[in-house]
Specification:
The complex is a heterodimer of chains A (449) and B (425). Chain A is of the alpha+beta class. Chain A is 40% helix and 21% strand. Chain A contains 13 helices and 16 strands. In chain A, helix 5 runs antiparallel to helix 6 and helix 7 packs across helix 13. Chain A is elongated, with a radius of gyration of 27 Å. In chain B, a hairpin with a 2-residue loop joins strand 13 and strand 14. The chains are: A alpha+beta (449), B alpha+beta (425). Strand 8 of chain A pairs antiparallel with strand 19 of chain B.
Chain lengths: 449, 425
């Protein structure tokens, strides 16, 4: 019964291996508990194919849009075919029921019976390829990066603001830390900050925390673990040990692939999204502004040892949900002001710049980098960042709000507004002798009230 | 005083001492003079029994005797020696003579602060308070961040920060040296602190060995990371005692179904301020009293009713020689709950980690001690349950107020909306 055109195209489906913790369908959905099903907006996005293509090009993204279109059409065709069969089956069933009720006998009845069993068989037959086609199309479309914000530069970074100027010298923070006995650095995965540097770490967190509270941000204290589905929802490859630390299976997750625990750290986008996944808010509560101070764990990708590449960082993370892109843009301005003020107060050279499209993560539509100069690197280091992701992750993890009895997806601004080891590395290289900045000193941990 | 001895052990140590533990041919310098002396057998057997710990002194002696009669050149010698050290490593530390007399019950040292009188009001439990005031989320988090996860929200998260500021400020006044520690450690550091990696697998989280390498574990307490920092170090007597403090995240895989440990009483991850000290062998008894005094000094102004306990032998972990616990009264649960402990580990850890001091031309093993300065989840339980008001607010102890933006109480949080789970899948 299956039309021939499918046969050749279906062959590509068979070689498909599952690779999503976020989207689970068909028989796998009975093996695994499906907590959330992402909202897929590919059909809407592909309506503006040229825009999508040019954005992928600006990002230097490797997604094969034509292949995705093809997969999606196979899926749509099978879906339509299944729908037709279902409708036909319903129609035949009704007719058959009518005849049986009337007590009619004869050829017509037998014909309908045969037709119904054939239809049932065909529906059964089409299910497996349909599930495969759906899985392929959806999983491939989940790999599609976010759209670009109009302010994201095509090529070079766009410097928005600069405070004082760099004072280049030849200092290296690791050497200074060692000479002054302030640091014990074994490797990127294992380092200790001693005495004043440890005070610096806490003091920096407390100072930023205090300032954010004064600016109506609400404080959170989050868990450090997140599950694979959240990691994938936030646009990272949950199977890649270079992107998150994966915990050893314990009895908690045994047997359920794609549902591992990841050590991401409390102060991360993952942790805030783990909080909001599959939850609804009322429109009137938005926008909401949250922050947290805590750990962030990211596997160190490089052999080069320094505070700029450590896998454990104390950071300050912010998370803002808004109703729409206009409100999001407004919030970005607000956060830029907060950032300028916080960093200007510290008195060191820094700059704020917008990162070009090809440097963005797949979930970002725009990134503002907070950069300080490092003498040892002879270049700028991103000591913090602010990202816009719009409704991209909200759709994947079903973070929703209701407005006029409709479900909508909040637009998100998030970011590590301060990465303390990176800030510390830059500051160490600017001083002759390290002193804890005034704002971070223990005497100032007690507020002035 | 913090200097040189920590990061550059080689500068201070002879070459002969730079061996690596737990490799095939080198063994920790466990006190064989004591453990292998037949005269001490009864005492050691008695000690294992009263501590209800593991360890088999008979088996150890058997191997020891066999080893003594085996020539070094014999091929079984190496194997025997390995087995001997395996047995030796299981044996617990000695027990303080006074503690030996306690039998099963802890000895009450004294009580601090009176129990608060709530009159006719029946005080609520922590989870009920946080629910009413919208200060914490624990429900439906299993699928996104694992079992027993919790989010402190708004002023409860602020209170966590205030407690850390308060505690660390007080410790710095006492000249503790602050250290920021790594949370991912290798197994030999954990083992040297008395954690049994293989038998206690469920207590410790580890990273996926295929993806991240075979030997990485999440620290259960900063004590482990601090001990790791001091490994292979030699200290000048004049620099002792060395007092360290750290604020860290602690990860514990253990689960509990005991009703008394419901809610956030026992959790998989939490923030803790920890004290760790290094002393000469003569100083450690006094240092333990000092650490206990420090804990009392930190907790008393918080207005909690507490009892200070000298713990009986069976409550001591293998490394501890003596341990004090402080239990706070938690009125909502109507029960005491342990909020801190401090232990004198004498030379149990230093022998395994090779931490020594230089005294009158000879090198001796230091004594190490550790104590909780503030473990957040239980401290928050004790604080909220003790200082709750019937009208739905929580008073903040005066000592904490300067670190809490000067606020005198916590009230209902209306900045963070309550969530509703989406019905559709």
């Amino acid at each position: 019964m299956m039309p021939n055109i499918f046969n050749s195209r279906l062959s590509i489906i068979k070689i498909f291996k599952r690779s999503s913790a976020l989207f689970i369908n068909g028989p796998k959905a009975t093996d695994n508990f499906v907590y959330v099903t992402p909202h897929i907006d590919f059909p809407e996005r592909i309506k503006h194919k040229d825009l999508l293509k040019s954005e992928l090009c600006k990002r230097h993204a490797k997604n094969n849009l034509d292949k995705l279109v093809e997969l999606w059409s196979v899926y749509e065709e099978l879906k339509t075919r299944k729908k037709e069969l279902d409708e036909k089956k319903a129609q035949v069933s009704t007719e058959l029921g009518k005849l049986l009720k009337e007590g009619t006998q004869g050829d017509n009845l037998e014909k309908l019976k045969i037709q119904l069993s054939l239809l049932k068989e065909n529906i059964k037959k089409i299910k497996v390829p349909l599930w495969s086609a759906e899985e392929m199309a959806v999983v491939e479309s989940l790999k599609l990066p976010n759209g670009l914000h109009p302010r994201t530069p095509d090529q070079n970074r766009d410097i928005l603001f600069q405070h004082s100027s760099p004072s280049p010298n030849n200092k290296n923070h690791l050497e200074i830390g060692r000479e002054q006995d302030l640091m014990c650095f074994t490797k990127n995965e294992n380092y200790y900050l001693l005495s004043d540097l440890a005070v610096f770490e806490l003091g920096a967190k407390f100072h930023f925390s205090n300032y954010l509270r004064q600016n109506n941000f609400t404080q959170f204290s989050n868990p450090d673990f997140t599950k694979s589905l959240v990691v994938e929802g936030c646009g990272a490859d949950y199977t890649n040990p270079d992107s998150t630390f994966i915990l050893h299976n314990n009895e908690d997750t045994e047997g359920v692939s794609g549902s591992r625990l990841h050590l991401t750290g409390a102060a991360s986008l993952y942790s805030f999204f783990a909080y909001h996944t599959k939850n609804v808010l009322y429109s009137k509560v938005l926008p909401i502004k949250y922050f947290t101070i805590g750990r962030q764990y990211i596997p160190s990708p490089t052999e080069e040892d320094s505070l700029f590449h450590v896998s454990q960082s104390s950071v300050v993370e912010i998370f803002i949900s808004t109703r729409n892109s206009a409100e999001l843009d407004e919030m970005l301005e607000n956060v830029i002001d907060v950032t300028k003020e916080l960093y200007t107060q510290l008195g060191y050279h820094f700059r704020l710049s917008l990162i070009p499209a090809d440097k963005l993560k797949m979930w970002e539509s725009l990134r503002l980098a907070i950069e300080m100069y490092s003498s040892s690197q002879k270049g700028y280091v991103e000591v913090g960042n602010i990202s816009l992701s719009g409704d991209f992750i909200s759709k994947r993890l079903m973070f929703t709000y209701t407005e006029e009895k409709q479900y909508k997806f909040p637009f998100i601004l998030s970011g590590t507004i301060l990465n303390i080891p990176k800030l510390l590395g830059c500051i160490l290289e600017q001083n002759t002798h390290f002193v804890v900045p005034e704002q971070f000193k223990v005497e100032n941990w007690r507020g002035k009230h | 005083m913090f200097k040189s001895c920590l990061c550059k052990p080689s500068r201070l140590m002879g070459k002969s001492m730079q061996f690596k533990y737990f490799s095939i041919c080198n063994f920790p310098d466990i006190d064989t003079n004591y453990y292998c002396d037949v005269k001490n057998m009864t005492e050691i057997r008695q000690n294992i029994q009263s501590r209800k710990g593991i360890g088999n002194i008979e088996k150890m002696h058997e191997i020891y005797n066999l080893l003594k009669s085996t020539p070094i050149a014999n091929e079984t010698y190496k194997n025997l020696k390995e087995n001997l050290y395996k047995e030796l490593a299981c044996l617990p530390n000695r027990t303080h003579p006074i503690v030996k007399t306690y039998e099963e019950q802890p000895h009450l040292i004294h009580e601090i602060n009176k129990k608060k009188d709530f009159g006719n009001y029946k005080p609520l439990e922590f989870s009920e308070i946080t629910n009413l005031l919208n200060l914490m989320r624990t429900d439906k988090l299993g699928h996104t961040c694992g079992n027993k996860s919790y989010y402190y929200i708004g002023e409860l998260a602020e209170l966590e920060e205030a407690l850390i500021k308060y505690t660390v400020s007080e410790l710095l006044k006492e000249n503790f040296k602050l250290v920021s520690v790594p949370d991912i450690l290798s197994s030999n550091v954990l083992q040297s602190c008395g954690m049994m990696i293989n038998t206690d697998r469920t207590q410790i989280y580890s990273l996926d060995p295929v993806h991240h390498g075979p030997d990485l574990y999440l620290s259960g307490t900063a004590e482990m990371s601090l001990a790791g920092l001091l490994r292979d170090s030699l200290h000048d007597t004049n620099n002792l005692p060395l007092k360290l403090a750290a604020v860290s995240r602690c990860y514990r895989a253990e689960t509990s179904n005991v009703v008394e440990e419901r809610g956030t009483y026992r959790v998989h991850q939490f923030t803790k301020v920890e004290m760790f000290t290094v002393t000469t062998r003569e100083q450690s008894d006094d240092m333990l009293e000092y650490l206990r005094g420090m804990q009392e000094h930190l907790f008393s102004p918080l207005g909690l009713h507490m009892r200070v306990l000298d713990m009986p032998p069976h409550e001591l972990g293998a490394p501890a020689y003596r341990k004090y616990d402080i239990e706070a009264w938690m009125p909502g649960r109507s029960n005491y709950g342990e909020i801190s402990s401090c232990s004198n580990c004498t030379d149990y850890q230093s022998r395994r980690l090779n931490i020594k001091y230089y005294d009158c031309n000879s090198e001796k093993y230091v004594h190490t001690l550790n104590g909780t300065a503030c473990a957040i989840p239980r401290m928050l339980i004790a604080l909220l349950e003790t200082h709750q008001e019937p009208k739905g607010k929580i008073n903040i102890p005066i000592a904490l107020q300067p670190y809490f933006s000067g606020k005198q109480f916590i009230s209902k949080n209306s900045n963070v909306p309550k969530l509703k789970l989406l019905k559709i899948k």
